[in-house]
Amino acid sequence: MKRIKYITIVATVFGMLGCMQISTPFRSSELLSNTANKMVIVGITHVTLNENNEGRRAFWTQTSNVVNSLEGQTGYLGHRVRRDLLGDEGWTMTVWENESALQGFVRSPEHIQAIRKGVIGVKEARFVNVSLPIESLPISWEDAEIIMDEKGRTRAY
């Protein structure tokens, strides 16, 4: 009977951990503080990872590489990253001065390499770009989810 109780407790704890997420705080560049009364572009990506553990590691390694490159990108204003603690979902949110800056980032060598090397771990990805007043930053993950559900596009891998 004690064994069943122990197994139940362990299963409950791991089940709860699978529902928990960790997030970086919103990190902004110096440019953000110098930008007032302006519309900015927010790029949001939501991925569901597949069962390939090597692919999952590759995805998070590449995500880290891209995050580390953001400060050097023209028009970059800020970012956040969120992931399931033990689950299979991840989110990125980046903020840009304009659509041109976001598209420049998307076509950057760092981002292209990340997609090429990290896609092995991705089951499905959703994307959305939205124009928001700078005063609304940082937006919450809850708001990001609503925006994604209303306007996002999906790609299966």
Set down the secondary structure blueprint.
Blueprint: H1 2-19, E1 21-23, E2 27-28, H2 30-33, E3 39-49, H3 53-69, E4 76-84, E5 89-96, H4 99-106, H5 109-118, E6 122-133, H6 141-151, E7 153-156
Antiparallel strand pairs: 1-4, 2-4, 3-5, 3-6, 4-5, 6-7
Describe the protein in words:
This protein is of the alpha+beta class and 157 residues long. It has a single domain (21-156), classed as Alpha-Beta Plaits (2-Layer Sandwich). Helices cover 43% and strands 31% of the residues. The protein has 6 helices and 7 strands. Strands 1, 2, 3, 4, 5, 6 and 7 form a 7-stranded antiparallel sheet that branches. Strand 4 (76-84) and strand 5 (89-96) form a beta hairpin. Helix 3 (53-69) packs antiparallel against helix 5 (109-118). The longest helix has 18 residues, at 2-19. The model is unreliable at 8-18 (pLDDT under 50).
For the record, what CATH class applies?
A: Alpha Beta
Q: Using the alpha-carbon principal axes, give the shape.
A: globular
Helix content: 40-55%
Unreliable stretches = 8-18
The CATH topology assignment is Alpha-Beta Plaits
The number of helices is 6
CATH architecture: 2-Layer Sandwich
Find the structural class using helix and strand composition.
Answer: alpha+beta
What is the averaged pLDDT score? 88
How many β-strand runs? 7
Assembly type of the shown chains?
A: single chain
Major sheet: size, sense and barrel closure?
A: 7 strands, antiparallel
Distance between the termini: 45 Å
Strand content: 25-35%
Number of domains: 1
**Rg value:** 18 Å
- SSE pattern: HEEHEHEEHHEHE
